[in-house]
Amino acid sequence: MSTAAPKPLPVPPLEHTVEAVVRAVGAVVDAPTLRATEAAARAFLAGPGPALQERLRQRATREASAGRSWLSAWWLRDYLAVRKPLPLSTNVAFQINPSFLGSTCGEPTDADAVETEPRDAGPGRTDGAPDVGRAARFIHRAAAVHLTQARGQTPQETDPRGNPVDMTQWECLAGGLRHPRPGVDEILAPRAGAAHREIGVFRVGRLYAVPVSDADGAPLPVSALAESLRAVLRAAARKTEQDQEAPGSRVSVVAPGALPFAAASALGSGELAPLLAEALQDPRNAATYARLRDLLFTATLTDEVLEDAEHLRRLAFEPSRVWALRPISYEIGLRDDWLCLHAEHSTVDGATLVAAIRRMQEAAEDADGSPQPIPGTDPAETGRGVGQSAAGEKRPEETACRESTQDPAELMWHWSEAARATIRDGLARGLQEAGKLETAIIRVPRPTAEGLPLKLSVDAVSQLILTVAQQLAYGRTRAVYEAVDMREYRAGRTECLRPVTPEAVAFARTLISEDATLDMFSEALEAHRSWVKACKRGEGVDRHLLGLRRIAAEGRDVDAPARAFLEDPGVAAATTDFLSTTSIGGAQQIVRYAFAPTVPEGFGISYTPHLEAIEYCLTWHRDTADAPEEFLAALPRAATLLGEFVRGLGQ
């Protein structure tokens, strides 16, 4: 791995942040509220603001000496402090474009080979038989990328400008666990290197450990992986009383009265931490947990044939489909082309996963199914890994890797009756809550830039459509979160861009009333562009506000009146995400993804640009979302209005 160093994350200028916050407030509140915010801002700059800023700079200096940014430890802690069940709060499901694997209908066709866009949403194509060959091919490619990280050889990634990005997020590809603890969880790194690694295969609620790498740390051949998967299917069928091979069966179902292996991860950490601590006193559970920790990744094999939106909703939110505290878990359709990744979000963001999937696509196979090295790695060092055993030491999983694939090892828990009751209750609650979440895919026409006297950013256009849709559906506009990749900075994660600007709101209103002008459109686009540039300079607003609030909370000399700006209702309105949105580019690697909304009345939205369309993947709470039918219906109307306006400019 390259030792190129990303640049340090600066502490943004205080005056810039305060001014930008006030402008964001002006886009979402009434005039009296804005005047109160402006007064609080002036008092903050004249009062405690500069002292808090200086303390934040001092923290930045201390954290830099430890290789971190002033933000990174706080950011990770905030994720690890989440007590709610992770699938219902911060985890994300990313649908992978499966075209590089061909179709489940037999040998890949020429159309499969050249396809760069995902196929239409639908149940997929199938010959009616489970396709373990396709699953084995994907696992083989995924293992090549994960094992490269386990060896510490992941090539340095760069951003589009050629700047090195921070590679910390790649560490989760080596395996490990988020371990629930009282108050704040912790990350447990895997103990194993690349040699003799296992993956976990979920089938109808059971988890089996199967070998995935050889003594040199290279992925096993596709043929060996396929035989392991067949062995898992046979073992699961033998142990399950219900017929799990029928299309449409639910992967979370096991024999009546039994608990799925991953059921406990349906609990939030507040419930799970004491339950797991007690269970790990049993050596059998301790051995299971150690093995779970050292799995390279897990893959759930499903027979479900569903529309993509329902596939995505189930993997994102339903409990027990994956162990929700593992960093990366995959789900692979055996009867359709479904391929998806479930991510525990505390240590990794979408842009890193896009890069990982791209490398899986590039990990070509030799004719005999053996791997070729990932570009940029040293083939001579394939067997060397981080955290390898001492000479002569053999872990249980190493022995298991040498055993016959005819008898895959099932991982099992031994819960007390009290624990089983708690888990059953949590599983039932998780299923009930997941059932209240709806996911929909909406495609709208993408306005074209042909003949226009200005640049048309697809991100800015996507956000303008959302702003216009809010105006159409609600007659007002509430705050929107747009994620910006910040990995070019040391320990960088994301920054928040606030796309609901006064210029965007003014344009949306006049577009609806048919009074919009080119100048207003240009101003709205420029306002979005200015936010992007500020974020990329390290001068975003939301993370800076978080830092100032943390510093204020640590300082006993900062009284409540002095904190008025940080607790101002207008500031709260501008930073409460009615729409939590994000995009990670086109659909070549990640087709779409789903995550829970951050407020009960709001929406979680990923959007993906296509050549002639923009796709929105929306998730909302059925019982609490604000008029979801009206908002979804407003999206095509908003896109049509904007498209007609843009076409008019080009004439």
UniProtKB/TrEMBL annotation:
Keyword match Transferase: yes
A GO molecular function held by the record: carnitine O-palmitoyltransferase activity
Active-site residues from the entry: H345
Organism, as annotated: Rothia kristinae
Domain of life of the organism encoding this protein: Bacteria
Residue spans of biased composition, Basic and acidic residues class: 392-405
Family of the protein in this entry: Belongs to the carnitine/choline acetyltransferase family.
Protein name per the record: Choline/carnitine acyltransferase domain-containing protein
Location of the Choline/carnitine acyltransferase domain: 9-635
